[in-house]
Each structure stands twice: as C-alpha cells, then as structure tokens.
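Cross-check.
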Amino acid sequence: MSAYESLAACYDELTYDIPYEKILTFFERLCAREHVQPHSVLDLACGTGSLSVLLAKHGYRVLGVDRSEEMLTVAAEKAMELEENQPFFVAQPMQRLKIPEPVDACVCALDSINYVTKPQDVQKAFRRVYESLRPGGLFVF
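Predicted model, tokenized:
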C-alpha cells in the first residue's frame, strides 16, 4: 500500500494551505503567454481532485488521472458538488498514460513528477503526455 492510499481520506486536511487558485492563475498565464487557449485539460497526478474541480469551475473540460484509486475516490466525491461540467477521473500511472482523445493542455501540479523515480519512466511519462496533447498543446509541470 502506498502512502497516498492510506492518506487519501485526510490528504486535503494535511494540504489545506496549498494555493490552488494561484496554481490555476499561473497555469492560465502560461497558456496566455504561449498563445494556447485550452478547452480540455488533463490534470495529471490529480490526487484528490482539488485542482481538477477548480479547473472545471472555471469552464475547462477536465480529465483527472492519478495512480491511486483511493485518491480518485475522494476526487470523484468532491466533483459531485458540481452541478455541471464534472471532471472525469481515471486511475493510471503517468508512465502508462493513455487517454481516449487528445487534450489542449496538461498540468501536473506540485511535486508529482518527483514520484516517478526511474529516469526511463520519466521519459515514458513525458512521451505519453506529448502523445496526449493536441498539436500546439502545453504541458505545465
């Protein structure tokens, strides 16, 4: 059992001070700077979905991907508070990412990339993200 499986139920209490609004603002500024106007966003290593829900509230169509099914259970419960435009969540490790259709942008917030510890797996994850983006898409991590 990974630490995140056992922490899923209390993760948001432990990370109450993460400034998701600022992360969203930073993401949107980078998109504007790179002339990317995303409609669909992949929230990679989305955890309990705090950023996914915030992105959805701001009108983005969101696919949240995380390795931990327990974290995604919390994310899905959190997303149910949205009356419309709920994110869709999928359990996958990022180095085996495979999504049904390309997205305009991908965000991988906090230190999530650091949990992929083998250089070849980081390379696989980046390749999978690249393959998941529409031409001209943006990967923010």
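The chain is about 40% helix and 20% strand. Helices lie at 3-7, 11-14, 20-33, 50-57, 69-79, 119-132. Passed to J.P. for a second look.
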